[in-house]
Amino acid sequence: MSDITIHTSNPGGITCVSNVFIDTYMKEANGEYVKIYLYLLRCLGQREVPFSIPAMADRLEYTEADIRRALAYWERQGLLRLERDPSENLRGICLLDPSDTGCTKDEGVHRQKSEHSEKLSPAKGNISAPEAQTSLPKPKSYTREERDALQSDPNLEEILFLAERYIRHPLSSQDMETIIYWYDGLKLPADVIEYLIESCVDKGHVSIHYMNKVALNWAENHFSTVEEAKQSASIHSQAYYAVMKSFGISGRSLAEAESAYVEKWTKTYSFTLDIITEACKRTILNIQKPSFQYADALLTSWHDHQIRHLEDIARLDESGVGKSVKKKEQKSGGQNRFHNFSQRQYDYDALEQQLLRK
Predict the structure, then answer these.
(1) Which of 10, 71, 255, 318 falls between 20 and 30 A from 302, CA-CA?
(2) Mean of the pLDDT values across residues 270-275?
(3) For the purposes of burial, counting CB atoms within 10 Å of the CB of 169, is it exposed (0-12), middle (13-18) or buried (19 or more)?
(4) What's the rounded Cα separation, in Å, for the pair 132 and 217?
(5) CA 20 to CA 272: how far, in whole Å?
(6) In contact, 243 and 262? CB cutoff 8 Å
(7) CA 117: distance to chain centroid?
(8) CA distance 155 to 229
(9) Edge-to-edge strands of the sheet including 5-8?
(10) Torsional sign, CA 286, 287, 288, 294
């Protein structure tokens, strides 16, 4: 990717932080976004230094998606303008004078975002998963007038715009209603929804139906910040790639049903990575092929017996429960489409390097 120019609409340049930014914008912004904005100001004083999204991400130890999300946020606040070529590639970032953007409008947006986050249900951990699920509002069908009114919200407008760019096709009416439901019904903050879409697409899941499952899970867990969502996604991502490595799956992402198993093992059962990989290893050893159904039967049995450590599994094996699970699965083998994998040989070192690059 070629270097991106960065310049300002202020003829005198900006080498210090505007008081308007500190008084009006900084207090409501995500801490990551503030750091990124301050770094942009710093870059204006070093024009000889090439500027690019990857370089900025490396300097601040953020992901490129983090940088782009922050740029989109500050553009919505009117503090910068993103300049793109006809192919929609980012070619310039123009920093605008904060005193020229109109504080009254921005304060209204900030207040709306703050109130939006406060509408979330009680503090995390005060409600069990079954109770949280039943407390979630049901999706509704919006009239054209209702949808038009909601889409006038600049945050929702940006979410719908980003969704179309990420999934690379126009949103259907049903897609729009689903995304509006996340924002208006589930009360997920705008930056959390944007991160949800980005993370799903990064894993190869462009289905709004799949994203909706993630949104429901995040709403049940009362995620109100990107940091909380990232922490949860990190745990799931580690298990996701560990399962792929254990099962020798390469050259593709996990299918939606396969990902649902990993979600179940990490979120519903709350198993650690070593227990999940142990189940995958035993699956290969016992039936000589990858099977999500077989691994799920093992993990379900371990969950029922309140397994929390590898030592607990050894004790369970001695009781003979593991043998009964194996026999049950061997009888049902071949009935599930996840059993229909031919046995292959893989270079696991090469596979690990490939997964690390993703």
Answers:
(1) 255
(2) 89
(3) exposed
(4) 10
(5) 47
(6) yes
(7) 18
(8) 19
(9) 5-8, 90-95, 80-84
(10) negative
User: What is the percent of the chain with per-residue pLDDT over 90, rounded to a whole number?
Assistant: 15
The CA-CA-CA angle for residues 288, 248, 305, to 5°, reads 65
| Residue 101 CA: distances (Å) to CA of 14, 98, 109, 156 | 16, 6, 13, 20
Q: For residues 94 and 92, what is the distance between their CA atoms, to the nearest angstrom?
A: 6
CA–CA distance, 209 with 173 (Å, rounded to integer): 13
Give the separation between CA 221 and CA 334, rounded to whole angstroms.
Answer: 36
φ/ψ (deg, to 5) at 78: 85, 15
Residue 347, pLDDT > 80, answer no
- pLDDT tens per residue, range 73-122: 888 788 888 888 777 777 888 888 887 654 434 444 443 444 343 333 33
Of 80-84, 250-254, 282-286, 337-341, where does mean pLDDT reach its minimum?
Answer: 337-341
| Residue 80 β-bridge partners | 95
Tokens of 51: 């500027």
Give the tens place of pLDDT for each residue, 308-318: 888 889 888 88
Alpha helices in the chain, H assignment, sequence order: 19-20, 31-44, 53-60, 64-76, 103-118, 129-135, 144-151, 154-167, 173-180, 190-202, 208-220, 226-247, 256-263, 273-287, 292-304, 310-318, 321-332, 348-357
pTM: 0.41
Contact partners, residue 300, CB within 8 Å, separation at least 6: 269
In this structure, what token pair is assigned to residue 316?
């369970």
